[in-house]
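[User] At your convenience, examine this fold.
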Amino acid sequence: MPTIHCLNNISSHGTDQLPASYELTDDIKKATGILVRSAKMHDMEFGPETLAIARAGAGVNNIPLDRCAEEGIVVFNTPGANANAVKELVVATMIMASRNLIDGIQWCRDNAGDPEIATSVEAAKKAFSGSEIMGKKLGVIGMGAIGARVARAAIDLGMKVYGCDPYVSVDAAWNIDTRVNHVDTMDEIYKTCDFITVHVPALDSTKGMLGEAAFAKMKPGAVILNFSRDTLVDEAAMAKALEAGTVACYITDFATPAVMQMQNVMVTPHLGASTTEAEDNCAVMAVNELVDYIENGNIVNSVNFPAATLGSAEADGGRIAVLHKNVPNMVGQITNILGENGANIANMVNASRGDYAYTLIALDQPAEKAYIEAICAIGEVIRVRLIK
């Protein structure tokens, strides 16, 4: 009987999707699958029965991806499940900054005891005069699930949107509004746009991407929005750009000690995905990914193994899943073993991702234990699983 361990509070909308044959367990060492949101997992040990970890969210910095791959544990995330929540917060804070709403609201609170506030506000409001976003230029760096939604919403609000993402997938490209002005380099966004919002993952190549060199190319008085990761911004360079007026306002969802010392910043306490709807969506998606992998061997939205699917295993005579290193002749060795044992392959998919690969095989007849033992003996095989 498969067992699932929840490291964080996971929405019941997700756990209710588990088949009746599944059980929740408090013992992570005995879990077939693990559901997690923000819990730090780098120092955790996993049991031999753990097949997969699903992160109810997009970022996976809290999970030891390489170690999981070495142990034959597939790690999933839920891209796009919280995209609308983040989009709404980006648009909301962009408008708040443009209209100077926070300072205006604070003035009202500070003068709450003034019996003549209805009159004095007429003189005070001049200090909080803002500007409209309609007609302004927004640069979107990263046109994935969130970036594409932000771009579409901004266009609908009357902004002129420029998008840059040289690595956007074919599927994501279909979701990009045709009204977005595609540009090839971020430099074009820096020199053109009044607002710049970044929606890229935290990688070695993106760390500090918004730094001194980028700020030097921007239009004076640009507004920067960062709802992706704090490490994308060089905080020392940002502080200098704010002091010099190169950047008029920095809006971020990441409260760090350095950011909280800066002037002209709008900081939210990591609220991007903090809506009931987003948490429900992420939980449902994470559970479905776990169940599909456990029941069928299908991998969708993994961050440490390649995508590979053969649909439902119900109609197969047998199904075998092999996680292995991405080295030559692995498929040949696996299929030779099956052929030598008289097993007929009805369908097969093999895919690789970096150092790792995955082979999923549907057979015409039930798989036998002898197949599994022989495949396990192949060098560079990490894990073999008899699904059916």
Notes: The domain at 306-388 is CATH 3.30.70.260 (Alpha-Beta Plaits). Residues 47 and 82 are 30 Å apart (CA to CA).
